Amino acid sequence: MDVFKVSGNGPLRGQIKVGGAKNAALPILAATLLTDETVVLRNVPDLSDMRFMLEILRHVGAETVQPEPGVWEITSKKITHVAPYDLVRKMRASVCLLGPLVARMRKAEVSIPGGCVIGPRPIDLHIKGLKKLNCQVEIANGYVHVDASEIQGGPIFLGGRSGSTVTGTANIVMAATLAPGTTRLECAACEPEVVDLCNMLVKMGAKITGIGSPELVITGVEKLHGCEHSVIADRIEAGTFVIAGAITRGDVTVKGIAPKLLGAFLDKLEEAGLPMELGEDYIRVLPYEGSLKTVDVVTLPHPGYPTDLQAQLGALMTQTEGLSIITERIYPNRFMHVPELQRMGADISIEGPSAIIKGASKLSGAPVMASDLRASAALILAAFAAEGDTWIQRIYHLDRGYERFEQKLSAIGAKIERLKDTDMPKELLED
Description:
Elements: E1 2-7, E2 13-17, H1 22-31, E3 38-42, H2 48-59, E4 63-68, E5 71-75, E6 82-83, H3 85-88, H4 98-105, E7 107-111, H5 124-132, E8 136-140, E9 143-147, E10 155-157, H6 166-177, E11 182-186, H7 192-203, E12 207-209, E13 215-219, E14 228-230, H8 235-247, E15 251-255, H9 263-271, E16 276-278, E17 282-285, E18 296-298, H10 310-317, E19 323-327, H11 338-343, E20 347-351, E21 354-358, E22 367-369, H12 373-384, E23 389-393, H13 405-410, E24 415-420
Helix pairs in contact: 1-2, 1-7, 4-6, 5-6, 6-7, 8-10, 8-12, 10-12
């Protein structure tokens, strides 16, 4: 397996471009099943999650062509309604197939995705929404079986204990696009990735109002058609690069991202005293003297602070003066990276849903394990601020959500190498 060797070597400097958003591209790929015409998608990131989703699309009958990097032409003339476990198990987001299969085929059999180390992410709200659309839903033998022969639009409240559901909103919106009648979806997720999906659906002929708000109104149509669509920039990747600049006290310009997509995140960095320059489509982190201030953060659904930037901010807060508190309200187990940061010298304690971070930690390189996608990024960011070499194992997690990560960072001065685990010093290898 691959590992990263990262060496702290001072400030990063230069420009770095953000790629397409993983969390937008996955449901958008699924949405191509809603029509038998060709959909052309641009700015699709080259990630393992994309490859898994494309494999699933091909399995259910879609034809996929990649005329150039980042561009996919997908035609789904004849498709099946079954998405089997051996494919779906590889990626939770494949549950987004439910909506388009229900809408197009009036039935679906989709395996329930597996678990995740950052905590349970049940699909109960997806099922609730489908039932509200007058679908018959049964769970048997690890599959969700849906009979949508009598599908009908109607009022749906989609809130849960942690607020709205992003993939659940995507599924129900897609299912409703071809359902007779009008669907009024309350407590819909407002994330930019959901907005991007809705904008593409409108290009395909869907009738959706209230896009970007917690209340979406979808009027069903008989047929959707092909379109061309460019996936929005990845705000989580952008935020990760912003923190890379901040934790190294560098001068880094993150290009291709609208700052408005990162409102709560940038607000916290401003509160911490990080000097920045914000343009229409870039964020520039400026060098600074002294220490950043501590912050208290609570992760919340959009437009609140994004859970996907929680671990990265925690890495930055190890370098401030005083106590920072980060409270996780979305995924209960999303502090799996903390023991690894502690191995590097971070002073962090977990109290219930909160991480209490005592700053001014002198970090040192160590062998660490990545537990999930964003934890991988947080460990790399901490390694930039550490003395010596940090060896990060299980980086296949990172490849799910960051495209050409080490190349982009190397181009602005990071000392980061992708190596084989056999290249690690033998005394550092896991037992």
